[in-house]
Design a protein that fits this description.
The chain has 312 residues and is an alpha/beta fold. It has a single domain, classed as TIM Barrel (Alpha-Beta Barrel), CATH 3.20.20. 52% of the residues lie in helices and 13% in strands. It contains twelve helices and eight strands. An eight-stranded parallel barrel has the order 1-2-3-4-5-6-7-8, surrounded by six helices. Strand 5, helix 8 and strand 6 form a beta-alpha-beta unit. Helix 7 packs parallel to helix 8 and helix 8 runs parallel beside helix 9. The two termini are 36 Å apart.
Length: 312
């Protein structure tokens, strides 16, 4: 119950304009901004530098250019052109070629066909340069559209794309089976969005049980699943099942977010598991930042300490 309430509060705060403006002014201040623990920076150059540092330590990386729910086709086109620039910069830098994006950033709320066209504009150069592109899953009203886009892309031969499934949604077993059937790579998460009880499990215990069951289904049938969690209980359950089934650590990877449970990230890497860190960046970072606080209230204490430090 506490987790659900926390999500609701922080999702609400993310929509407060004054907070967003204040955060934009102080949150990413060079060297001391309180959001820099969780956000690599506002520019692609900062993200690439963070990716280079992580890569040198043995981590996989995925660059996550933040932005969602654009209101005009012009903004969707601008975001698409930003991705083309990001691809060029990543290729020139030599860091790992892995991206994450949201369909509403490309215009899904306005016109699904245009969003698909914008995505194909990104996937063409991404494919030529050996990128893997993860289509992030937004809240439940977008699930069907996202899966339909994946089906369409797969039919057109774009096999360097995957998506995300949320264990909090009761529909997810069928969605996992659908993606496994075509061979699309899946990233499994618990889910960061506030969802209705009509579509989501009402308790954390049920979400956790679903996560473990879906992780097993992915380990058994998905070509290369990504298990995205910072929860040691979930991680231990996945490791135990993989051992029982003789599934080697090269057949899947754990994924975590930049700045969260860095101790656990390092421990898994030391044990021989593959660990990918999502590296978020961009000027539209505030909604993402608030979701991270809502997911794990312990993060709030870290941010408060950072703000107090910056003011002293």
């Amino acid at each position: 119950m506490l987790a659900v309430t926390s999500k609701a509060v922080f999702h609400g705060l993310a929509r407060v304009g004054l907070l967003s403006r204040l955060a934009s002014r102080y949150g990413m201040a060079p060297g001391s901004g309180f959001a820099r623990r969780f956000i690599a920076g506002e520019s692609v150059e900062e993200a690439i530098e963070a990716a280079r540092t992580l890569g040198a330590k043995g981590f996989g990386v995925s660059l996550d250019y933040l932005g969602e729910s654009v209101a005009t086709l012009e903004l969707a086109d601008a975001a698409t052109r930003d991705y083309l620039t990001i691809i060029d910069r990543v290729v020139a830098s030599g860091v790992e070629r892995n991206l994450s994006l949201k369909l509403t950033q490309l215009g899904l709320d306005i016109d699904q066909a245009t969003a698909l066209d914008n995505l194909r504009r990104i996937l063409e150069p991404a494919g030529r340069h050996g990128f893997f592109v993860r289509i992030d899953m937004e809240n439940s009203p977008y699930t069907d559209a996202t899966l339909d886009v994946i089906d369409t892309l797969w039919g057109l031969g774009y096999h360097h794309v995957g998506t995300v499934i949320q264990s909090c949604l009761t529909r997810s077993p069928g969605d996992i089976d659908r993606l496994n059937a075509i061979g699309a790579r899946v990233r499994l998460v618990k889910g960061a969005y506030r969802e209705s009880k009509t579509v989501a499990y009402p308790t954390l215990a049920e979400v956790n049980a679903a996560f473990i069951e879906l992780a097993r289904r992915l380990l058994d049938h998905n070509p290369y699943p990504a298990i995205a969690t910072h929860d040691p209980v979930m991680i231990d359950a996945v490791k135990a099942y993989a051992r029982e089934q003789g599934i080697g650590p090269d057949r899947f990877e754990f994924q975590m977010l930049y700045g969260i449970r860095r101790d656990l990230q390092a421990a898994l890497l030391a044990e021989g598991y593959r660990v990918r860190v999502y590296v978020p960046f961009g000027k539209q970072w505030f909604p993402y930042f608030m979701r991270r606080l809502g997911e794990r209230p312990a993060n709030v204490a870290f941010v408060v300490k950072g703000i107090l430090r910056d003011r002293n």
